[in-house]
Amino acid sequence: MGLAEVLGPVSRFSSFKRTQIILQHLGMSKHTDSEPEVLLERKGCAGVVTLNRPKSLNSLTLSMFRQIYSQLKKWEQEPETSLIIIKGAGGKAFSAGGDIKVISEAGKAKQKLAQDLFREEYILNYAIGTYQKPYVALIHGITMGGGVGISIHGHFRVATEKTVFAMPETAIGFFPDVGGGYFLPRLPGKLGYLLALTGFRLKGIDVQKGGIATHFVDSDKLTMLEKDLLALKSPSKENVAEVLDTYQMKSKIDQDKPFILEEHMDVINRCFSASTMEQIIQNLQEDGSPFALEQLKIIKKMSPSSLKITLRQMMEGSSKSLPEVLIMEYRLSQACLFWLTKTRTLSGSQPN
């Protein structure tokens, strides 16, 4: 199936609504809070990035991408900065992705804005993935969409019992970008394919057991963990890992709990190993287990075109490098938004 066919219109998704939701997911919003969107501070040995939009679940904007990228590059060159810590303010979310407060913003959004946002977001993702100093993301609370992009590519991701991870893009007529085509196919078995296609949510220690987080720490120990990291003197990645390992060993929450999908991995690996969505659907139907049928039910609610795009993205990304995946995803993002804009123009600017 060619790209033009994959990007064809889907009747159950209004192009107007899909464009709105996608732009919301990407954080094309006007920041109206009096507080800075992001705090960039030197503390001890570390550069500390705090996403500072708690009322919007620390949703990310183009301005935030630019500020974070610029400061990370400066810190990377400073000898006195040996470590990066990134976290979210408010306690509810690391970052839930994007936000839009004024619906008309989506209607006004131009292709140039979309080009800039995707390009600069993905450049930041790559910068994090190739960062020369230890990078620790404290993914406490909701971590989705763009929030995944600024955490998953770093050296260390620390989850807590309140972490909620998901890549829900197939439900909004898009695909799991921010490097999803790189890290998801590299999870155990076909787990990443399940997460990508169904938007399955991992919570708490399952975020670490599923391979998204590198460590799990009790949330009431995060403040002390940060203090201990800041107290390190010119830490190497091994020094940072030692501190994180120590805190994980002290954790008492759900340590003996099996991974939530452990008993279903055979079904996941068998059903999601197919190279077409049609075969995956057939596999789930033929399996007939309650778990398989539940995933089938979820898949039927997703955008069919998004499912096909995402499956191909996973298959292609499994053998590509991170920069190759981000280039692929940039092209996909522009093709998707171009199609949505085109169909919206043809059908009128009002919702169907």
Automatic annotation (TrEMBL):
- Show the taxonomic lineage: Eukaryota, Metazoa, Chordata, Craniata, Vertebrata
Where the protein is mainly located, per its record? mitochondrion
CDD domains for this protein: crotonase-like (cd06558)
State whether keyword Hydrolase applies.
yes
Tell me its family.
Belongs to the enoyl-CoA hydratase/isomerase family.
- Entry keyword Mitochondrion: yes
Q: What is its EC number?
A: 3.1.2.4
Give UniProt keywords alphabetically: Branched-chain amino acid catabolism, Hydrolase, Mitochondrion
Write down the superkingdom of origin. Eukaryota
NCBIfam families in alphabetical order: PRK05617.1
Q: Which reaction does it catalyse?
A: 3-hydroxy-2-methylpropanoyl-CoA + H2O = 3-hydroxy-2-methylpropanoate + CoA + H(+)
Q: What is the role of the protein in this entry? A: Hydrolyzes 3-hydroxyisobutyryl-CoA (HIBYL-CoA), a saline catabolite. Has high activity toward isobutyryl-CoA. Could be an isobutyryl-CoA dehydrogenase that functions in valine catabolism. Also hydrolyzes 3-hydroxypropanoyl-CoA.
| Protein's name according to its UniProt entry | 3-hydroxyisobutyryl-CoA hydrolase
One Pfam family recorded for the sequence: ECH_2
First-tier enzyme category under EC: hydrolase
Tell me one GO biological process term: L-valine catabolic process
